[in-house]
Structures are given as C-alpha cells and as structure tokens.
# Entry
Amino acid sequence: MRVLLVEDDEPIAESLRRGLSRYGFEVQWVRTGTEGLEAQPADFALVLVDLGLPDMDGLDVCRELRARGDVPIIVISARSDEVDRVVGLEIGADDYVTKPFGVREVVARMRAVLRRVQPARSEPAQEYGRLRIDRRGRRVHLDGAEVELTPKEFDLLVFLAEEPGAVFTREQIMEAVWDENWFGPTKTLDVHVGVLRRKLGDAASLETVRGVGFRLVLP
Ligand code: CA
# Structure
C-alpha cells in the first residue's frame, strides 16, 4: 500500500519511512508542499502531511489535496494547538497526530482511517493465486468455492495478505487484528493460524518465522 509523506524534517521522515515499511506500507517521501501537490493523490492510499513545511502551510496542502479528491489525509504536526487540529479536520483531514509520536500510533490512525473510508470506495475483490479475497463483502473464495471463515480468521488473512511474503511480528498482528492496545500471550494467534492453514490448504501457506511472527506465502 503506497503512502505519500510530506515532511521536511529528515529524521522524522526517515523513521516514519522505515517504521511504516515494516507494517507493509511503501512510503514516498517529499520535503515540500509544492512537491506534495505535484504528486498524484490517486496513486496513494493515504497522505501524511506535516503542518510546518518550508514553502507553504501544511493546512493549505491539505485544503488543495481535498479539493482535488477524496484521498485520506492525516495531519502530522509539532503544534499541539487545538485550533490547528480543528482547522485541519474542518478542511477535510481525516485525522491528526501530534509530534512526538510513535510509529505504532501513526499506523493505528492510518488503519482506522483506511477502514473508515474503504466501504465508500469501490474496491474490487483481489486475486491471490487460487484465492480471491473480497474485503468489502468479507468473503474468501478458493478455486471458486467460498471458504467459511470466522471474523478474526478473515481479518488475520486480510492483514497478512496486505503484503504477501512480508513478515509481520506477533505484536503487529495482535495489535491490528485483535486490539490496538493488546499485550500479553499470543496463543490465540497460533490457534487462528492453525485453523487458517487447514482451511486454505495448499493455496497459500502461513509460514512461521521463528521468534518473529508469520508471513503469507503464495505458491
Ligand atoms: Ca516540519
């Protein structure tokens, strides 16, 4: 999933780029509002906009992006000013994070925003080899036959399928699929992985990466 990051502060941009890539997001980073507006918002699943940019006010970048389309926008800012937050949301930003923030917090906001906007967008079912995942209809087909999945099994599969081949840690999976603030044993995850393996057969393999987590591998 591609994300546009408009941020002039290099350390912050670098840490976001690295951090978000671990969660399966591919970040295109630009340093100025002008460059941000030169990008095609339609190429991105979401845009992160810093308010304090060298060439223009980040709020103007948001306003302009919003005028051009409905790409989800999250404002990132060092200003903890309530006015900025309100203005940001009024001009069409979908959410707001205040510096300093952790990557996990940003990812949680991004996922929440993407979940909110997804039903309004027409996202066709995606093919993954013999699997077909329909996120809007929450259905999975294997060789054309529907696979009965519980809601958590479905969420787990969809999460891993965001980036086939990428390893997701147990913590990332638990946070995304079970609870954002989840923390504790992950036995339930192993149980769900076991069931999914059985239901998907050899159409996809959920590989255990010892000491780290899991990845979805398509033949
Ligand atoms: Ca800045």
The chain is about 40% helix and 25% strand. The two ends are 21 Å apart (CA to CA).
